[in-house]
């Protein structure tokens, strides 16, 4: 396996036991020809048994390392900046403007509220210059800064970007709800399963959480792949419990099938995953024991 190259602009500080207590900060890593940067926007502590209604309190006892001391499950919200060759695009668009005060029944509290525009600026990225934003799905914590009301400019924060949208996702918007994205009809490009939207970046349909939920497979150029899988899984615990549906899954059986396909794919040699909600364990792989193994800067010389 090729030796990985790495640069970290800001690292999250992990506990010595590798637990996911902390929400992520900006980071940048390079794998072969691919450079990935996490762009934080918000963070929230979830109530585990409400996010995963099939689980019970005792089911979480073996997973305390993924929880806060108060027993909540931290999740980050943000976007992934992808750079390969002459291509630069964003996967998802963060949570958008939030006060942190309006909570869903499965949320305990917002752990922090960051500003995605400020995060992009810290990475030296002008959102007005991005030509593509690829969406995993249309939930509000993934479309935030691309919505028509995101900023004063009705074109959103990304004034000229085309929207890459998985087949079936536009049809999932209820009639009368209005557009999810700024200039939705004119700017959206419907992407079928397997379509390459740029060199080394292709769509993988993983429906169930929403009808058109789409992961994006990123080719590193040296024989490896990174799968940005959106909400196909919400925490590392789901790798061991693919039967645990998430409260917002629209089709629970199909979502479970997609999770099992994803876990199987991430178990292959040279295939890694990016879980946007995976607290500070976003980049990793599924090891031989069937568990999520996060990137560890100190010990991983050939894999994230």
Task: Output the CATH homologous superfamily.
Answer: Ribonuclease Z/Hydroxyacylglutathione hydrolase-like
- By CATH reckoning, the class would read Alpha Beta
Number of domains: 1
How helix-rich are the residues, as a percent range?
10-25%
Low-pLDDT regions: 1-19, 297-304
How many strands, what sense, and barrel or not for the largest sheet?
8 strands, mixed
The CATH topology comes to Metallo-beta-lactamase, Chain A
Q: How much beta, percentage-wise?
A: 25-35%
CATH architecture: 4-Layer Sandwich
Number of helices: 6
Give the structural class: alpha+beta
Order of helices and strands: EEHEEEHEHEHEEEEEHHEEE
Radius of gyration from the alpha-carbon trace, in angstroms: 18 Å
| Overall average pLDDT | 89
The end-to-end distance, rounded to whole angstroms, is 12 Å
Q: What is the oligomeric state here?
A: single chain
* Total E-strand runs: 15
What coarse outline follows from CA principal-axis ratios? Answer: globular
InterPro entries: MBL_superfamily_lactonases, Metallo-B-lactamas, RibonucZ/Hydroxyglut_hydro
Protein name: MBL fold metallo-hydrolase
Keywords: Hydrolase, Metal-binding, Zinc
Family: Belongs to the metallo-beta-lactamase superfamily.
């Amino acid at each position: 396996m090729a030796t990985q190259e790495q640069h970290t602009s800001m690292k999250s500080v992990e506990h010595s036991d590798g637990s996911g207590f902390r929400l992520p900060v900006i980071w940048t890593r390079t794998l072969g020809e691919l450079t990935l940067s996490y762009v934080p926007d918000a963070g929230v502590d979830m109530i585990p048994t409400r996010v995963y209604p099939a689980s019970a309190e005792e089911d979480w006892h073996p997973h305390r390392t993924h929880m806060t001391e108060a027993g909540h499950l931290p999740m980050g919200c943000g976007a992934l900046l992808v750079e390969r060759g002459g291509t630069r695009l964003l996967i998802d668009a963060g949570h958008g403007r939030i006060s942190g005060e309006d909570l869903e029944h499965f949320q305990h509290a917002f752990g922090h509220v960051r500003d995605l525009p400020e995060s992009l600026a810290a990475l030296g990225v002008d959102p007005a210059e991005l030509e593509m934003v690829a969406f995993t799905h249309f939930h509000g914590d993934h479309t935030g800064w691309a919505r028509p009301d995101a900023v004063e400019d009705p074109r959103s924060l990304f004034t000229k970007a085309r929207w890459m949208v998985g087949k079936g996702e536009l049809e999932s918007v209820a009639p009368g709800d209005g557009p999810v994205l700024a200039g939705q009809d004119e700017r959206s490009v419907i992407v079928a399963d397997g379509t390459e939207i740029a060199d080394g970046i292709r769509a993988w349909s993983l429906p169930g959480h929403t009808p058109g939920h789409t992961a994006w497979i990123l080719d590193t150029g040296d024989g490896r792949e990174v799968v940005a899988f959106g909400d196909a899984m919400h925490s590392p615990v789901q790798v061991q419990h693919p039967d645990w549906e998430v409260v917002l899954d629209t089709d629970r059986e199909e979502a479970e099938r997609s999770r099992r396909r994803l876990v199987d794919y991430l178990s292959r040699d040279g295939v890694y995953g990016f879980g946007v909600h995976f607290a500070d364990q976003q980049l990793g792989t599924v090891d031989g024991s069937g568990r999520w193994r996060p990137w560890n800067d100190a010990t991983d010389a050939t894999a994230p």
